[in-house]
Amino acid sequence: MFIRQLKYLVTLxxxxxxxxxxxxxxxxxxxxxxxxxxxxxxLDLHLVRRGRRYEGLTDEGEKVVGWAQxxxxxxxxxxxxxxxxxxxxxxSLSIGAIPTTxxxxxxxxxxxxxxxxxxxxxILSLPSQEIARRLDSCELDFxxxxxxxxxxxxxxxxxxxxxxxxxxxxxxxxxxxRTHLDWAEVAELPLCxxxxxxxxxxxxxxxxxxxxxxxxxxxxxxxxxxxxxQIRCSNLSAVVPHSVLSLxxxxxxxxxxxxxxxxxxQIGLVVRKQNSYPPMTAAMLELSRGIDxxxxxxxxxxxx
Length: 304
What we know:
Layout: H1 2-15, H2 18-25, H3 29-43, E1 48-50, E2 54-57, H4 59-84, E3 91-97, H5 105-115, E4 119-125, H6 128-136, E5 142-146, E6 156-169, E7 180-182, H7 183-187, E8 190-194, H8 199-210, E9 216-221, H9 224-233, E10 237-241, E11 255-260, E12 264-271, H10 279-289, H11 293-303
Helix pairs in contact: 1-2, 1-3, 1-4, 2-3, 5-10
């Protein structure tokens, strides 16, 4: 019962609403409330501030939630270890990915599910700092992000590929047969870019500044899929990591041009540092090491 109580408390802290927490835990609201009250009695602590509705956690509650997240992660690892003795991995893995790598996630999760049908995935699009925070609090099993991020100090990283930034456009008449453009030439085009709060955009802005030019940004979006939709339906162009081209492998109307000098960043899989990994985590890591994403994405530049 104690594990269930901790799960109820952690879920309540996440959704900040008794009814929604009960729904997520597949119990009635009175059952969830009673379980948390019993946990308070066992610990002799006041964990939740209550009025007519949920008002947040007490200071003691915040501390207990932190411990609970780690205890639940250890419990899940133990449960997986027990199941692995029967070669029957079953459970859920959570992945936080920076927005520009969302098209990459299926290339990792699908082979894992093909080999282990009992593994489910929860995929979240998150900024790099939030990925680090959620890995630290055991809310995520994996992160897919820039390996140059200083917030990753203390985590274990597994390089996946080096992303290279390219120009993507539907109107190839403006290219006049060119296979390469420099940053000054790209800046003259009407562009759709990711919003300035996103790390990928900040990387692109740095490249424009270093070239001493100001880009003609006609539209911004915080979604890589929104950006792709704009390119398909308008005369705008975009600067994107070449891994995004996996979205358009069969789209002949999209043109891609390399930008010089090359702008690149390393992307990797990030996990909490542990002496040994739970079986599902270990299985995902092993499979990811055998997938050659770099060659796949580099071929997309050569083909288009």
